[in-house]
Amino acid sequence: MKVEVTELGPLKRSLKIEVPQEDVNQQFTAVYGELNRQVRIPGFRPGKAPLNLLEQRYGKDVGEDVIRRLIPTYYEKAIRQAGIVPVVVEVPPIERVKIKKDAPFSFTATVEIKPSIQLRDYKAPNPISLKMDPRTVTDEQMNKVLDTLRERQAKLDAAPPGTALADGSYAVLDVEGFLDLAPLEGATKAGIVHKLGAKLPVMGLEVDEQLTGKKEGQLIEVSQPYPASHPDPKLAGKTVVFRITVAAVKQKQLAPLDDEFAKDCGPYSSLAELTDKLREEMERALKREIEDTYKDTILKRLAETHHFDVPETLVERELAAMVRQRLDQEARMRGRQPVADPEAHAERQQEIKKLQEEFRPEAERRVKIGMILEAIAEKEGLAVEQGDLDAEVAKMGAELRLPVEEIAKIIKAGGDEAIDELRGRIMADKSLDFVYRHAVIQK
């Protein structure tokens, strides 16, 4: 086999690959042999049809089959022989080629290769230096959490007689709608609990201003005109008068911060135990937040201190994934099903192009960081073990509230690509953890 490598750019190589004549003939013989056993030609027993007849009838199809068999095998041999590491494992698009027996077969493949990354400043003697994050859980934050719990446990009690409604107080409202002085069907509702100041409508009406200062037993009237174009002919061009009665005035009563309150919040025997548990959870959450902040800084430093060309193939893949994710999110927000292939819809081309321009810098950054972390993992001998995969699947199950078996089934359904993506994500996390453990936090 002959291989000619031509440099087309910093990361692009053209491979002209020539398959020896004897290998071509061997493959033709194998394909015609299989074909002879499968086809039925009148006048000949199975497997006994003459070769020249098979060539006349099936020569073109056989040639294409031979090409499909030869290219993957000899492409892999060629990249090994040339010492090239492509950025993707699959065979790249091949130029249109022709093949015939008793002659060598040549084809050309254009591949992108992985850049050479000179790692620096990620561990001793030149580790990444981080500025200490001094945040701690404060008493003020603890008090806010306790206040939130008190709000959740609060009860609505009757306000003292004669209490006027104001922001923060609650009204129990009975509403009746009238059209032309007659009760309107479907416009009556009793026992509506409404908090003044929340600016929430009552049966589509803004009533906070009219209710302010009213007391139990008092009534207000709110007129609601409807346009002539209203779809309900009974209401079109008419005005409905809503009579709203304040059936009761309520006040929220917060439970005192004591041991009984703690018991109502869960399996706690005292307020001190509840407070200690809350502080422990808040400190754990803050620690994760600070660690994530440190790691974001590390990723930024790694991107800034390493300079190399990023493979366009990987950027385009990342960009396509980012665009699809955004379009899927927008579709779900509008209550629609995600489009299977957004680029197949001509009306979306402008939107997709705009998103591609917006996301390209971030896609390039993600690919660059991914390649740096991959290089660190390779240099440090990091590996993804079965335990790492099991832990990640368990974590995904907890986040999505699905059984581990269901998550594993979803990943398996995605094939090798989904498993490789999961392994790649775990490996990147392990590399980042390695750099984080070797970083220096300045006090």
Features:
single chain; 443 residues; alpha+beta; Alpha-Beta Plaits; Chitinase A, domain 3; Trigger factor, domain 2; 6-stranded antiparallel sheet; 3-stranded antiparallel sheet; 11 helices; 16% strand; elongated
Provide an overview of this structure.
Strands 5, 6, 7, 8, 9 and 10 form a 6-stranded antiparallel sheet that branches. This protein has a 3-stranded antiparallel sheet with strand order 1-2-3. A two-stranded parallel sheet has the order 4-11. It starts with a strand and ends with a strand. The model has no long low-confidence stretch (mean pLDDT 91). The chain is built from 11 helices and 11 strands. A hairpin with a 4-residue loop joins strand 1 and strand 2 (12-19). The protein is an alpha+beta fold. It folds into 3 domains: 2-112, Alpha-Beta Plaits (2-Layer Sandwich), CATH 3.30.70.1050; 155-253, Chitinase A, domain 3 (Roll); 271-442, Trigger factor, domain 2, CATH 1.10.3120.
Oligomer: single chain
Overall pLDDT = 91
Which consecutive residue ranges, at least 5 long each, have pLDDT under 50? none
Count of all domains: 3
Structural class: alpha+beta
- Please provide the ordered H/E string of secondary-structure elements: EEHHEEHEEEEHEEHHHHHHHE
* Count of strand segments: 11
Number of helices: 11
Which strand-content bin applies to the residues? Answer: 15-25%
| CATH architectural category of the largest domain | Orthogonal Bundle
Cα gyration radius (Å): 36 Å
- Helix share, percent: 40-55%
The 3D shape can be described as elongated
CATH level-3 fold name of the largest domain = Trigger factor, domain 2
The end-to-end span amounts to 62 Å
> What is the CATH class name of the largest domain?
Mainly Alpha
Task: Tell me the major beta sheet.
Answer: 6 strands, antiparallel
